[in-house]
Amino acid sequence: MRRPLVSLVPLLLGTVTACGPSQPPGPPPGAGVVAIVGAQLIDGTGSDPIAESVVLVRDGRIETVGPQSSTPVPDGAEVIDATSQTIMPGLVDTHAHYHGDLDRVRRQFRKQLYFGVTTARSIGADPPGKVDLMLKAHTGQVTAPRMYTAGLGFSYPDGFPPGSPVNRPHTEDEAQEMVEALAEQGVHFVKMWVNRMPTPGMKITPEMRTTVVEQAMTHDLVPVAHIIEEGDLVQLMDLGVRDFLHTVEDADISPDLIERLRDTGTVFSPTLTNIHAGWFWIDHPELLDDPELRAAFEPEALARWSDPAHREEAAASPTLDARKARLAGSMAFVKILNDAGVGVAVGTDSGAGNGSWNVPQGWGTHHELELYVEAGLTPMQAIVAATQTGAALLARGEPEFGTIAPGKLADLIVLNRDPLADIANTRDIDRVMQGGTWLDRTTLMTMP
Ligand SMILES: [Zn+2]
Questions:
Q1: Do 410 and 62 meet the contact criterion of CB atoms below 8 Å apart?
Q2: Which of 5, 38, 238, 357 shows the greatest Cβ crowding within 10 Å of its Cβ?
Q3: Whether pLDDT at 58 is above 50
Q4: Distance 24 CA to ligand 1 centre (A)
Q5: Which has the closest alpha carbon to 212: 242, 246, 250, 239?
């Protein structure tokens, strides 16, 4: 206990050292540290929140986390008073698409960052030029979420998604070459579309799926499948696929299959928002005046939904009732899986739709959390889906992001209001930090 007194002496004397070796005083122990003090902390693991916390960030990473009463703030730290606010991890969106030229893609990245999406996966629509940009975004060389990419995904000649320039091999040799090309580009995942009930006979064949999955695994790439039918899910699980997009829509999933999903660590990214956004704007035209939503929407989509004639036409769509039933079914699926302990991650399909782009980048990620809560998850469970679960899925195992714990990259959001009281409060963002740096949100949204 005497040591602190002794060490204070040079500090008090400044540079004056009358005796002993001359040593200029070092920086204070908290130099370069950002201390966020007083906020409720939701760490992304599902643990009980800490009511009044201290989070210390140094060199881009979380250094210390704890209750304010027992966590000292080191001298010289930059203190951010976050009393009555909430800190949570940056959001992870496991299912996004980016369209247009590279400048336009960068704008979509910035929209996501504005809304606190600090990590995302571009899943199936990236030709080589876009892959390069995604890989730069993966390593922080671009103002963007930490991006993962699947390059161009796989479908069948005339298969889903119609008209998209994705990989459509005619032979297994061709499929093998296409996976090899992806591996050379340095992608992280191999995506496959296995649709689609309304158009039977146009699905990628079971043999071709086997080739794609086996080749992906040979190259240490993770296979990911868009499925909506139980039989396709089972075949792909037999091949070792553990990462599925959307939900099973043709059957009530059996208890045995649920158990198998859980025991194999399989994770679904259900994309409820993409279904809902097909009519949500009809019910809530007032949102189209919200400045944040207007900025998040692609201009074409905003113009379309802002037109009362378009909303009227969409409201009269003969498929509307069926789509509403689909959403209800997918919400029930999310609840069943979550209750059974099967991994559910947050993915939005933002940027999907070949020009419709109904899901605004970033904004949609928050809407997905709202739909999870509407489906019956607790706000805490929805937050875990959007943070820890998605992070583990993308980073394969022990991720460096997605939770607020010592050693993790400092990706976090400071909220003005409590998301555990109302999940919509995740959108009431005061600040976003990515890799230890506060983002300039105004610039993110206004930069052309
Ligand atoms: Zn998609």
A1: yes
A2: 357
A3: yes
A4: 58
A5: 239
**What are the CA-CA distances from residue 200 to residues 156, 158, 169, 204, 324 (Å)?**
12, 11, 18, 11, 22
d(CA 414, CA 122) in angstroms, rounded, equals 25
Look-up of token digits 């050292």? 17
Is the model more confident about 256 or about 197? 256
Token readout for 324 is 């509403």
Is the separation of the CB atoms in 124 and 193 below 8 Å? yes
In this model, does residue 201 exceed pLDDT 80?
no
Helix, strand, coil: what percent of the chain each, to 5?
40, 20, 40
- What sign does the dihedral 199-354-427-139 (CA atoms) show? positive
Taken in order of first residue, the domains within the chain and their CATH numbers are: 1-89+403-448 (2.30.40.10), 91-400 (3.20.20.140)
- Which pair of structure tokens corresponds to residue 341? 């302990």
Q: Is 371 helix (H, G, I), strand (E, B) or coil?
A: helix
pLDDT tens track for 212-261: 999 999 999 999 999 999 999 999 999 999 999 999 988 889 999 999 99
Map residue 58 onto helix, strand or coil.
strand
The backbone torsions φ and ψ at residue 318, rounded to the nearest 5 degrees and listed phi first, read -65, -15
**Nearest residue to 103 (alpha-carbon basis) of 148, 140, 144:** 144
Q: How confident is the model at residue 72 (pLDDT cuts 50, 70, 90)?
A: very high
| pLDDT at residue 21, rounded to an integer | 56
Ligand 1 midpoint to CA 1 (Å): 60
Task: Quickly state the pLDDT bin for 313 (edges 50, 70, 90).
Answer: very high
Q: How far is the CA of 97 from the centre of ligand 1 (A)?
A: 7
Contact 366, 419 (CB under 8 A): no
Q: How far apart are the first and last CA of the chain?
A: 58
Name which of 222, 217, 215, 191 is nearest 204 in CA terms.
191
Question: What does the alpha-carbon distance between residue 298 and residue 348 come to, in Å, rounded to a whole number?
Answer: 15
Q: Given this model, what pLDDT does residue 11 score?
A: 41
How remote is the CA of residue 349 from the centroid of ligand 1, in Å?
Answer: 5
- CA dist 268 and 347 (Å) reads 9
**Which pLDDT value is given to residue 349?**
94
**How many angstroms separate the alpha carbon of residue 364 from the centre of ligand 1?**
13
pTM of the model as a whole:
0.93
CA distances from 83 to 252, 294, 411 (A): 46, 30, 19
- The pLDDT tens digits of the residues spanning 136-163 come to 999 999 999 999 999 999 998 878 887 7
Measure 347 CA to ligand 1 centroid, in angstroms. 9
